[in-house]
């Protein structure tokens, strides 16, 4: 006796295609809704991938190595980074800042993360 498909079994492939189409359509509709939700967001306050957050700090210059582009500063706690007071050597972003970095001088400075390091990006 040959194997015969019942009428219900013939409908299964069609039902699976309909279910898959319905799920795809739902995903497209939901993605469109999320995009509409984001249209109302103020993106100007979002950090861009090219922007850097800099952190203010205060410290005393302990050593300067302008040739290597580095300065060592004994800084106070940097609360915005959860750093305690300590002495650190930083790369200096702009060599023109070395005019303001003299050993023994108390300075207000800015640091920003570049890669895995923090770099002095400004000095007052």
What does this protein structure show overall?
It is built from one helix and five strands. The protein is α+β, with helices and mostly antiparallel strands and 124 residues long. It folds into two domains: 7-38; 54-123, Beta Barrel (OB fold (Dihydrolipoamide Acetyltransferase, E2P)). Strand 4 (106-114) and strand 5 (117-123) form a beta hairpin. The protein starts with 6 loop residues before the first helix and ends with a strand.
State the domain count.
Answer: 2
Distance between the termini: 95 Å
What is the third-level CATH name, the topology of the largest domain? OB fold (Dihydrolipoamide Acetyltransferase, E2P)
Mean pLDDT: 79
How much helical structure, as a percent, in the residues?
25-40%
Shape: elongated
Give the number of helices: 1
User: Which consecutive residue ranges, at least 5 long each, have pLDDT under 50?
Assistant: 43-50
* CATH level 4 superfamily of the largest domain: Copper binding periplasmic protein CusF
What characterizes the major β-sheet? 5 strands, mixed, barrel
| CA gyration radius, whole angstroms | 30 Å
- Under the CATH scheme, the architecture of the largest domain is Beta Barrel
Q: What strand order characterises the main sheet?
A: 1-2-3-5-4
As a percent range, the share of strand residues is: 25-35%
